[in-house]
Amino acid sequence: PLRLLDTSTGRLCDREAQITAFMESTEYKDLLYSSMMHAPLRTDPIEEAVEKYFSWVMLSHRWESEEPLLRDVRDKVVYDLDPVGTVVKLQSFCRITRDAGYRWAWSDTCCIDQNNNVELQRSVNSMFVWYRHSALTIIYLSDVPPSAQSGALANSAWNTRGWTVQEFLAPNVVLFYQADWALYLDDRSCNHKKSVAIMRELEDSTSIDAQALVAFRPGMSDAREKLQWASTRVTTLQEDIAYSLFGIFGVHLPVIYGEAKQNALGRLLQEVVAQSGDISALDWVGKSSQFNSCLPADITSYKSLP
């Protein structure tokens, strides 16, 4: 990611600041000493140490009102901010990440400059990869109360959002936390993708088969099935229902907020059909798009028929 939160200091760091922190760390000094003392130079220990040091944790959550943005945390210590509203969520996320042994944390609220179109476009097109290569993705269910029973995850608002589809498909390791930041169903395993109960609950509520939930691979195969996964989802910005699928299909397209959802969805579908030859995306029922009359105006056209 372009910038990350340093959970040890609570400060936001760009790539240059991360590298500076590494060069001042004991890990770097140990590597330097080891390389001088041993010949020939072995690169494997260096790669492992660098990968471990720079590993990061992603946050998946439902946006609430007045989330702390980049301008609110830049040049500040996250832990020193007034613990009110959604700031508490960010602080808790950083603490959980730090206590789990990870130095770097990423939240879409404050780690992306929403006013920089170039950065926003790069971030949207890179999001899936960032989640995929994260050491851990923490999924925060703000509306699931303490001691919730099985079924609460399925009914969470998090499970209705468009962006969250890729946020639980992409990572290899995920942990679900409820409102009080206790682990969902008190499942203390190191990866909830290995929890039969949690994956069954997700499978039943999303209609995404268990194999895809646990080991999803992006691509354009089974296009209509992937569109069906998103057909009941909602996003705050209308274009995001298409943009949130870029990573799932493995495509890179321009991000043009203001183009309207018919154009955004149309460009995505056109690209998928053209590149893959999979015409299952043309199997839909509903209103046709002004972008292309062969395509639907809304992703809800891919819902399962009665």
Automatic annotation (TrEMBL):
The lineage of its organism: Eukaryota, Fungi, Dikarya, Basidiomycota, Agaricomycotina. PANTHER family: HET DOMAIN-CONTAINING PROTEIN (PTHR10622). Residues 56-143 form the Heterokaryon incompatibility domain. It comes from the Eukaryota. It holds the Pfam family HET. InterPro entries: HET. Coiled coil: none annotated. This is Heterokaryon incompatibility domain-containing protein.
